[in-house]
Design goal:
The complex is a heterodimer of chains A (about 140) and B (about 290). Chain A is mainly alpha-helical. Chain A has helices at about 5-15, 15-30, 35-40, 75-90, 95-100, 105-110, 110-115, 115-140, and strands at about 55-60, 65-70. Chain A has eight helices and two strands. The model of chain A has no long low-confidence stretch (mean pLDDT about 90). Chain B has two domains: about 10-145, 3-Layer(aba) Sandwich (Oxidized Rhodanese, domain 1); about 150-270, Oxidized Rhodanese, domain 1. Chain B contains ten helices and nine strands. Mean pLDDT of chain B is about 95; it is low at about 180-185. The interface between A and B is medium-sized, with 28 and 23 residues.
């Protein structure tokens, strides 16, 4: 389950510091821009408050599929790269799988090592929110 | 009263930096929150010094050793008489933190580039992804008596018992203690919320314009000297969550306003908010010292 995500986590985790930075920069470039219909809702309600960088999350569902849109400024390439990994790995996954996004993927991908203990908590905030949103959606019947 | 900063040379403009890009006596250093940002593009010839992976010990919560600092400078081509100019993201939080750390190790000539990374980029100055290599320099550190610019938790306890002044530079919600009660997401790092008794709230960004450059000397005097009634004879401690935003305010108080006795409490709230038995005040008033 969540094979694409696990693949990215494993790949990041195996790299040395410099290679990891380069892969995050590459991933950051792939984060799709927010659809126009969402761009105007970049407000406090969609911002992750634990994260020092302005991270905005827009989770949606299409039937039983989890869809994730997100926005992170290019000036925060590590956080943006992390976000791109989550979007690539989770968006389009069945809701029932998205709720199982593993809590330890930040450690396994070497991001704690890269960012340091004091700063990695922002990423945990992002991850927790994504998972909680998926759980909330999975608990509701799909809208018609 | 002069309209100048107290130590105007400690702050350099992007134009000054541009004129000194090839000056062998000057080393430009980028220090960022985001460890990947330097590799997306930086000032030509700038060295990267990371607050976490270069300046901090990777096991204990402290700084690197003197020999490690000497090796770091040597590798970056920094000699004892090099003018080191720091800049970075987030309006120079970490640049000020690196500046402060360099001062702990006794580096003589440190400067901050006004506005940092975002300002340099916004006004269209040159950037490159080319990572420079430097001829190793000879460096011998002469660490200062740390207690002149650094406060440890026992210093803070003595400070509040003596009724001296503190500046809390975190966001208003962190200061009042509301921030730990947001929804179901307790922020990691601190078990208690609020502020150190007697601390006045002046969020770090009060000192800058929207473009990240520092406000004028007159504006800064109004905010800090008049607003908090700070005097040159005062003993002052600044703190935030982990000591980086308070380095920014430390730089403002010490170099732009010329207050001689300002210390940064780098343990900050992630230490104080977890300590057993220390006094904490909730709400928007500074509160009183315990005695």
């Amino acid at each position: 389950m969540l094979e694409k995500l696990e693949q990215l986590v494993a790949e990041l985790g195996e790299l040395d510091r410099q290679e990891r930075i380069e892969l995050l920069i590459d991933l950051a470039r792939t984060l799709p821009p927010l659809p126009d219909r969402l761009a105007e809702f970049k407000d406090a309600a969609h911002r992750v408050p634990e994260c020092q960088s302005p991270v905005f999350l827009f989770p949606e569902r299409e039937q039983d599929t989890f869809i994730l849109h997100a926005d992170v400024p290019p000036e925060a390439p590590t956080v943006r790269g992390f976000m791109a990994m989550l979007v690539e790995g989770l968006s389009g996954a069945p809701l029932q799988e998205a709720v199982l996004v593993p809590a330890d993927l930040i450690e396994r991908s070497g991001l704690r090592e890269l960012l340091g203990m004091q700063r990695v908590s922002g990423l945990h905030g992002v991850l927790r929110r994504v998972r909680d949103m998926a759980i909330r959606m999975a608990a509701e019947p799909p809208s018609v | 009263m002069s309209h100048q900063y107290a130590h105007p040379d400690m702050l350099v403009s992007p134009e000054w930096v541009e004129q000194h890009l090839n000056d062998p006596k000057v080393r430009i250093v980028e220090t960022d929150e985001d460890p990947a940002l330097y590799f997306l593009g930086h000032i030509p010839g700038a060295a990267e010094i990371g607050w976490h992976h270069h300046l901090q010990d990777q096991v204990s919560r402290t700084y690197i050793s003197v020999p490690q600092f000497e090796a770091l400078c040597s590798k970056a081509g920094i000699a004892n008489d090099t003018t080191v100019v720091f800049y970075g993201d987030n309006s120079n939080w970490w640049a000020c933190y690196a500046y402060w750390a360099f001062k702990l190790f006794g580096h003589e000539d440190c400067r901050i580039m006004n506005g940092g990374y975002a300002h340099w980029k916004a006004i269209g100055k040159p950037m490159t992804t080319e990572v420079p290599s430097f001829t190793p320099a000879r460096y011998q550190a002469h660490p200062i008596d740390q207690t002149r610019i650094r406060a440890f938790r026992d210093d803070v306890l003595a400070h509040i018992e003596a009724g001296h002044k503190l500046v809390d530079v975190r966001s208003p919600k962190e200061y009042t203690g509301e921030a730990l009660h947001m929804e179901n997401y307790p922020q990691e790092g601190s078990l208690r919320a609020g502020h150190i008794p007697g601390a006045h709230s002046v969020p770090w960004a009060t000192a800058i314009h929207p473009d990240g450059t520092f406000k004028s000397a007159d504006e800064l005097r109004k905010i800090y000297l008049e607003g908090l009634d700070l005097k040159t004879t005062d003993d002052i401690i600044a703190y935030c969550r982990i000591g980086e935003r308070s380095s920014h305010t430390w730089f403002v108080l010490k170099y732009l306003l010329g207050l001689p006795n300002v210390r940064n409490y780098d343990g900050s709230w992630t230490e104080w908010g977890n300590l057993v038995g220390v006094p904490i005040v909730r709400g928007n008033q500074p509160g009183v010292s315990p005695r």
